[in-house]
Amino acid sequence: MVAVEQYLKPELASQIKRLDLRAQLVVKGFLQGLHASPFHGFSVEFSEHRRYSHGDDPKDIDWLAYAKTDRYYVKKFESETNLTGYIMMDTSRSMAYTYRQQLTKFDYCLCLAAALSYLMLMQQDPVGLVTFDQKIKASIYPRSRRSQFAAILSQLVKLKTSGKTELRGPIQQMMAMLNHRSLIMIMSDLLTDSDSSLDAVRMLKHAGHDVIVFHVLDEAEVHFPFQGLVELKDPETDEIVPVNADDIGHDYRENVRRFREDLKAGFSQSRIDYVPLDTSVPYDKALMEYLISRRNRF
Amino acid sequence: MTFLHVSLLAGCLAALAPIIFHMLGRRQPKTLEFPAIRFVKKTAVEAQRGWSVKRWILLATRVLMVLLLAAALAAPRVASGLFANSLLAGLLGILAILSSLAAIVLWGRKRGMLAIAIPAILGLGLWLAAGFYGWAVFNRSSDTPLANNQGPVCAAIVVDTSPTMGYKYLNHTRLEDAKEMASWLMDRLPVGSEIAIIGSDAGGRVNQDRLSAERQLDRVAVEGKACDLIERITLAADTVRKSKLERREVYVLSDMRKIAWRNADNVDLNPFITGESTDANVEKQPRILLQIIDLGVPEKDIRNWALENLRLSSESVVPGGSVTLQADLRALEGDIKEQLMIELAAEPNEKKSVSGRDGQWQIPDAKLLDRQVVQPNEQGSASIQIPWKDLAEGTNHAVLRLARPDPLEIDNVYHLTIEAREQGKSVVICDDANDGQLVALMLDPSIGVGKDKGSESANSVDVETRARISHIDFSKYSSVVLFNPSELTGDEADRIAGWVRNGGGLLIVLGPGAVGPQAINGNASAIAAGSTLLEKGAQGGVPSLLPGKIRGLTKSPMDGTLTVLRPVLANHPIWSIFERPPEEIPWVSYPVYQHWNLVDLDPAASVIASYTQSELPMMVESIRGSGRVVVMTLPYPEPSVTASKGAWSELYTTSSDAWPGFALFLGTVRYLATQNKHPLNYNVGTTAVLENNTKEFPKTYELRQPNGEEIRVDSEDESISYSFTQQPGHYRLRGIRARGVLNRGFSVNVDRNEVSLESVDRSVLEKSIGVENLLIAKERDQVQSSIGEGRYGRDLTPFLWVILAMMVMAEQTMSSRFYTSKRKGKS
Asked: Does position B37 have pLDDT exceeding 50, yes or no?
């Protein structure tokens, strides 16, 4: 298990070229660390029986089925099976940034998306994919079939970063696509107007959807490790700002901290899960956030 | 301001180099892609302005560094007096630069107008102040000597010879230190220098060679009078200004006592030093370097006891007589609880003691006569009284001194000279010949014993009547007894008064004759009314000789209360005849029945004895010119006219018990007959005069000063005058007359007002000499440094290097923020 955890580190996971393997590695390694299965719920509408697996709550065991079949079965409920997941992935140019030249924010989000997709499909939840910059660029309708994972992966590997970051437009488009309560997992650096982003995400929440925001920034965007005189160029607007990094480092870090604090406060008010990440943080942290939010919700 | 070489200032052109390098060498910052630029923008825009300003500040710093380096290498110097102004100008300049930079930075950051205006206005003010002081430095230092001037100097060394220069500290007197310092200074003068030693207030002679100056310096001695250093400095300035040498320096070696600088308040020495004159037509003289060298003892180490206020009961007595010395002891500083011992030591008075066989002076050693232990009171003072008894005939020299020496010895001792000689001839002037004979017999019992005319003693007594006053040759007599006078004409009184003013001693014994024949015949009403002849002749006659006015008689009351004599001035030499204190004489055994009332006394008159009941004076002394008048307000001996009317007192009886009245009368006449016309004890600097009757004394004397120098003095107008009494001590005169060698002399002491250890206040010197010109040094290092500064100005180079070092550090700090290292830059 220790070995697997080591592989959860982004710099190692990135060495695995096949995205499906990466996802499996992350998810399996992660699941082995859990004492309880994430697959449980409260729905009163019985759906079907499922073989008991290690980690299931014993109280869910259907003892009548056991008496008949001499095997352990647990009951599945309708609500669990109907949770539809959407992964909204930001593909703007800013997502292609990396300071250490190892793992871009986009790569980080790819791994995260793959892992989450795998995880949801593992529990037979339908999951779909939406990519966007200023508008939705591509989408895969959510399904719970095993082939869905391959479809998502093939879509993910084809993605290229371009355009500017914009949340309002894509989310409005997204809302038009949704016809029942879903889990929306947004992965973006949110390097756009924060108020606009908040409003847009709140719209999703108000529409009855569960929303998790994975706010992914590059390590350098959080810690600002530059020194001396440098010219900083915005990849989305090509704007250049000459700065003395020593002079503004502190102020910059303070600005970023405040930005994330504002977002966290804004999302919390709307009961939206906000997961601030940077590329130096292992994926398991992201998954932990997701699963905890799931557990709290049910 | 001067420089090592002006051409070195061309190095300032190198200041262009950083400007060129700065412009050419500006590196473009590395461009990095960074998506989160929105968080950088706001801060960066502000920082960008500041950074741009800082870049120019860095450039200015580098330019300033180069300028400072060029200036430091040029070794700028300013006159010592302008050093403070130079530093102040530099400091103000730096503050002005900082304020200006602060204003620029704030402007770059687009702060509020108020925030920018405050440093801007402050900077402007500082620039103006720096400019003002800079102008002062450049404008006033035009005549500063060049740094490389090593030519000869005309130097005057002023030596303080005040009594306090005899203060001994670390086994050296201040004067010894001064001489040592003067030699050290002379050693350091360039070859070919001229030296003047100013050790007295008169004359300034420039010595062309060192040896002459050394000899002149050796002769400088501590004097008994505080010198006037301001006068000596002006004399020194005048002396060096006459020299043809361009560089002129005056050194003052002093212990910095206030008494020597007493005229600093009144005299402005600036024109003497700077050579400037208020008269525009007078050409400006070259500047003189004035260096004061403080040889004073630290205040905490000063210790001194002093004998002060010496009072002699008399300066002349009859042989075998005695005098009483009174003085005050004062502890100026130090431990006043110590007991001190006062000694009286006198030289044996032997006629041949001062001159040996070969004519050399042989001063006998003083023998200790008396010694007293004195305990000063809490204020540190004490009074002492020592008798000097049994003085031998002739001139007696003695010293009254502290047994234990203290650092300043000059005020520990009093030199004394007392003359003991036979009283001169006396004359008794009396209306009644019998009374006159009686008085004469009392004064000279040998009268009528059958002596030869030729063997008449020196103190013989003549008797004359009032009618012969105009015929008496008073110059023959040392004293006159005017016994029971009744009336004198104005001319007669004037004749006697003139003789008194010339040094004579007059005793007026008032008796019944003062009221005239009527009163004597029993006209009591005339007596009660006080209508005496003495009062009537208030404009002349006897009253003109009296120190007060007669206002009737006082008679003893009938209730049996006794009126007796009471001594008032117990230390008066008249009482010295008694050999014991006059209070111990049984005066109560000799009641007084009546006496004259002498009132309205002259303020200068002193009452020697008074009456117990009436408190009116019995015996009064007054000084008239060089002579003295003593008045007795009752008759002694009793005049014959009172035999039928009753005695005035019991003082005069024929019994042997009546010795007190006789002794008092005899002592009074002796006192008057032995008084000198001129004093024998003088203060330093005063002219000493000795009476010299050439019929009796030699015309020419050899005078030996306390320092051993001898000089010949001649008698003029029957007196010897000597003015060069600068040294305290005994001045001895030796003359040859028919009867052999005659030794005479007088003493000179330091006026204690001239001995003060109070230090002069620096502000007083600054006022007189000027703050810029005042150079005071104590140690040799300081002197060397101070003289160097005075000659060549003060070097600003060290300060420039300090500022340069600060600029380098500032430049390093700023440049490290602008240009990070490559290792960091890569990141």
From this structure: yes
Residues in chain A closer than 8 A to B820 (CB atoms): 227-229, 246
CATH number of the structural domain spanning residue B468: 3.40.50.880
- Measured in angstroms, the CA of B93 and the nearest CA of chain A are apart by 29
Measured distance CA(B403)–CA(B408) in Å, rounded: 13
B410-440 pLDDT, tens per residue? 899 999 999 888 877 889 998 888 888 888 8
ipTM over cut 0.85: no
* Strands of B477-483's sheet in order across: B461-464, B425-430, B477-483, B505-509, B627-632, B617-624, B606-611, B565-567
Q: Residue B620: pLDDT band by 50, 70, 90 thresholds?
A: very high
Q: In chain B, which residues have their Cβ closer than 8 Å to the Cβ of A195?
A: none
Q: Which residue of chain B is at minimal alpha-carbon distance from A260?
A: B39
Question: pLDDT tens digits, residue range B144-165?
Answer: 444 345 678 889 999 999 999 9
Mean pLDDT, residues B716-725: 87
Whether residues B409 and B289 share a domain: the answer is no
- In CATH terms, the fold of domain A2-33+83-297 is Rossmann fold (3.40.50)
Residues 20-49 of B with CB under 8 A from A: 27-45, 47-48
Helix or strand holding residue B737 (H, E): strand B729-737
Segment A44-59 shows an average pLDDT of 74
Long-range contacts of A261-266, Cβ-Cβ distance < 8 Å, separation of 24 or more: A262/A194, A263/A190, A263/A194, A263/A197, A263/A198, A263/A213, A263/A215, A266/A194, A266/A198, A266/A202
Report the run of H or E that residue B482 belongs to, with start and end: strand B477-483
Q: How many CA atoms lie within 13 A of A256 on its CB side?
A: 24
Subunit contact B818:A220, Cβ cutoff 8 A? no
CATH number of the domain that B738 lies in? 2.60.40.10
List the domain boundaries for chain A.
2-33+83-297, 46-79
- Give whole-number Cα distances, B441 to B447, B448, B454, B461, B661, in Å: 6, 9, 19, 8, 15
pTM: 0.54
Q: What is the mean pLDDT of chain B?
A: 81
Average pLDDT over residues A99-105: 84
> Do B37 and A234 count as a contact with CB atoms less than 8 A apart?
yes
Answer with the residue of higher pLDDT: B737 or B521. B737
Would B1 be classed as within a structural domain? Answer: no
Residues B477 and B589 in one domain: yes
CA angle A114, A116, A118 (to 5 degrees): 70
Residue B704 CA, chain-centre distance (Å), reads: 25
Best residue of A194, A216, A234 to probe chain B, by most B CBs closer than 10 Å: A234
Q: Which residue of B30, B33, B55 to mutate against A (max A Cβ within 10 Å)?
A: B33
Q: What is the 3-state secondary structure (H, E, C) of chain A?
A: CHHHHHHCCHHHHCCCCCHHHHHHHHHHHHHHCCCCCCCCCCCCCEEEEEECCCCCCHHHECHHHHHHHCCCEEEEEHHHHCCEEEEEEECCHHHHCCCCCCCCHHHHHHHHHHHHHHHHHHCCCCEEEEEECCCEEEEEEEECCCHHHHHHHHHHHHCCCCCCCCCHHHHHHHHHHCCCCEEEEEEECCCCCHHHHHHHHHHHHHCCCEEEEEEEECHHHHHCCCCCEEEEECCCCCCEEEEEHHHHHHHHHHHHHHHHHHHHHHHHHCCCEEEEEECCCCHHHHHHHHHHHHHHHC
Distance, CA of B750 to CA of B738 (rounded, Å): 36
User: Any idea which residue has 């997961």 for tokens?
Assistant: A275
pLDDT tens per residue across span A184-237? 999 999 988 888 889 999 988 888 888 889 999 998 998 888 887 788 888 888
Provide the pairing of β-strand B627-632 with B505-509.
parallel
